[in-house]
Amino acid sequence: MALDLVAICALGLEELLAGELEALGVSDVRRQRGAVTFRGGWRECWRANLRLRTANRVLVRLASWPGADGDALAAGAAALIRQENLRWDGVSVAQLFDPDRTFAIHATSTASAVRDIRWVGLKVKDGLVDAQRQRFGRRASIDREEPETPLRVWLHRDRATLLLDTSGEPLDRRGYRVQTTTAPVREQLAAALVLASGWDGRGPVVDPMCGSGTLLAEAAWAALGQPPGCLRRHWAFEQVPGFDRAGFEAVKRETLPAPGPDVRLYGSDLDPAAVRAARINLKRAGLADRSEVRRGDGFNWAPPPGPGLLITNPAYGERMGQAEDQWKRLGDLMKQRYTGWTAVVLAGDAGLGKHIGLKPRARIPVRNGPLDARILVFDLY
Ligand SMILES: C[S@@+](CC[C@H](N)C(=O)[O-])C[C@H]1O[C@@H](n2cnc3c(N)ncnc32)[C@H](O)[C@@H]1O
Predict the structure, then answer these.
(1) Using CA positions, which residue lies closest to atom 12 of ligand 1?
(2) CB within 6 Å of ligand 1 — which residues?
(3) Which atom of ligand 1 lies nearest, measured to the CA of 299?
């Protein structure tokens, strides 16, 4: 039987994530707030973990039950363990909740009577271990650092949903960002800029204020078909009972990059530490031969012959007047030097992006950590 899968993402990225899932060929893709649900087997789950660029994690929905108070939360968890024939694409309750496997529970609560998330986690844990004692004669241990079964419980409108985290470390930790600078953009958001731009992978990629080089790396990996999980060593799904390593190796082989277009990357930054960081990160991402990163003012830089993709997330001075002026300069730069290019910019929420003075083809509100931001896409004629 197919799994109920959930890919979670930053608010605002749902549509791009749903597009990625549709491209993977999974079924029943449905957008939620901060998540996209879909169906498939373990292979689809591994493939999603390996290939989704805009997701934070991939989870399997295990069960759902009414949880208006602590007793109800515990009772629903216990009822799950008592089920004899329940399986998740071949993995039985007895295998997943084997008392010899450690587990941990991460809880959230929204719009529910039980608001204390520690209490939610505690009651669900109590239900699980009590039922384990009854069914198996002993209970599993908790391991918060490296659980064999990492669980999440979401309590929403007094209904609990128990999920298995199949990712472990969040998917944005691609493994190439070994050096950072101030305010680096998260990898999934960087990938979202690339996907939102609709760029076809042709022509050079330029980030005139490249910081640690994340946008350049994500653009190149997307254009080359490089799976975002290619450098990663561990996934939580490897601990699922009966994990088929040969099957996963086959999924990895099917995602090996085809010889891609001749992507060339160009970055500049005023800060020498950023230039150093970008060079190190791009090398780690396997992109050293394709990239040129130099120290300099992005405003005084003649781009390579295009058209291509201009991609950037500028961060300007604190003072409002100064920031407005800089956004206007960016707009002038785009008009004067990047005619015929596609441009995609991550702008903060303060409405400063409008000082670019060009009408965006697309404008996507997104959450950037604790901040509201906008992805703005421009066709520069
Ligand atoms: C928000 S950070 C970019 C972060 C980058 N996307 C990353 O992931 O690391 C903005 C960068 O713009 C650089 N910067 C600001 N003004 C610049 C200018 N006129 N020319 C070049 N770089 C500039 C800063 O040094 C900073 O590294």
Answers:
(1) 209
(2) 181, 183-185, 208-209, 211-212, 214-215, 268-271, 274, 297-299, 313-315
(3) 19
Contact 95, 188 (CB under 8 A): no
CA separation for the pair 137, 23 (Å, rounded): 46
Q: For ligand 1, atom 14, name the residue with the nearest CA.
A: 209
For residue 95, the CA-to-ligand 1 centroid distance in Å is 50
The C-alpha atoms of residue 178 and residue 213 are separated, in whole angstroms, by 11
Overall domain count for the chain = 2
**Is 352 within a domain?**
yes
Q: Are residues 208 and 155 in the same domain?
A: no
In this structure, the answer to whether residues 337 and 263 fall within a common structural domain is yes
Q: Do 198 and 316 belong to one domain?
A: yes
Question: Would the pLDDT of 255 be above 70?
Answer: no
Does 128 lie in the same domain as 205?
Answer: no
Residue having the nearest C-alpha atom to atom 1 of ligand 1: 315
Q: Are residues 153 and 212 in the same domain?
A: no
Residue 31 main-chain phi, psi, to 5 deg: -85, 135
Residue 52 sits in the same domain as residue 132: yes
Ligand 1 mean position to 269 CA, how many Å? 6
Q: What's the whole-model pTM score? A: 0.95
pLDDT in tens, 125-179: 999 999 999 999 999 999 999 999 999 999 999 999 999 999 999 999 999 998 8
Residue 244 phi/psi, 5° resolution? -95, 95
φ and ψ of 137, to 5 deg: 85, -5
Question: Which atom of ligand 1 sits closest to the CA of residue 214?
Answer: 8
Dist. CA 22–CA 30, nearest whole Å = 10
Same structural domain, 121 and 221? no
Q: Which domain holds residue 326?
A: 187-226+259-379
Residue nearest atom 7 of ligand 1, based on CA coordinates:
184
Q: Which of 218, 270, 284 to mutate to test the pocket of ligand 1 (most atoms within 8 A of CB)?
A: 270
Picking from 366, 4, 1, the residue whose alpha carbon sits closest to that of residue 188 is 366
